[in-house]
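Ticket #4471: structure export looks truncated?
Reporter: QA, pipeline team
Priority: medium

Steps to reproduce: submit the single chain below to the structure queue and open the exported record.
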Amino acid sequence: MSIQVLIPAGGTGSRFGSSVPKQFLTLGGKLVIEWTLAPFLMLDEIDCIWVAVAEEIPDEARACFARLAAQHPNKLKVVACAGDTRAATVLGACERIRAQTLFASGEPDPWVLVHDAARPGISVELIQRLLAALQDEPVGALLAVPVADTLKREALREGCNAKQVQATVTRSGLWQAQTPQAFRLDLLRTALSKAGDAPSDESSAIEALGKTPKLVMGAPTNFKLTHPADGELFAALFAAREKQCE
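Actual output as written to the record:
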């Protein structure tokens, strides 16, 4: 089966509080996006990796992409098709994938693994686990982990803006979605086209069509770079991985 990877990397980093988009920050001596790309580049099962970026990206990122493309000919494609939302970016990149994969391979409907650019803790083992789950799978699948912490629903305290606990929400049966999330290209295009800009992930767009993706066990280390403190956790993770490779 044809496997394409799509990494939406058009975010601005505004919520992270950085002047540089978080996917292009340096952690552990490499750009975050390079850590993210590394496991995918290692796998022969993956035909091509598409990185969807904005028209303007830092020079360091441009140099990184050029170096990786030279090291992995025909494996990495960087396309400037970032939209105003994640959903728009993914949909735009899907159109690029459809046009080029149909022409290149004759297969119009490959599997597409969508992965967050700022989720650099992904590993070869997790990707292979997800790929194995796609065998004979009619809808698609995503990495996720069961919710471990007690969940609270908030409410505003009367007379002020302070937040208080409204209720405790049972965590039984709840999972925290991760990426990659894998779906056939045509199904993903259809779901995103109908969902508009609302979906925060690809699975929710698929679910809106009445379909039920498969849950595949992820890992706590596959978390998303969201707050500045997360950078310290990732730096420790990368240092440990580098030490294992020595």
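Status: closed, not a bug. The export was complete when the record was re-opened. Leaving a note from the reviewer for reference: The mean pLDDT is 90.
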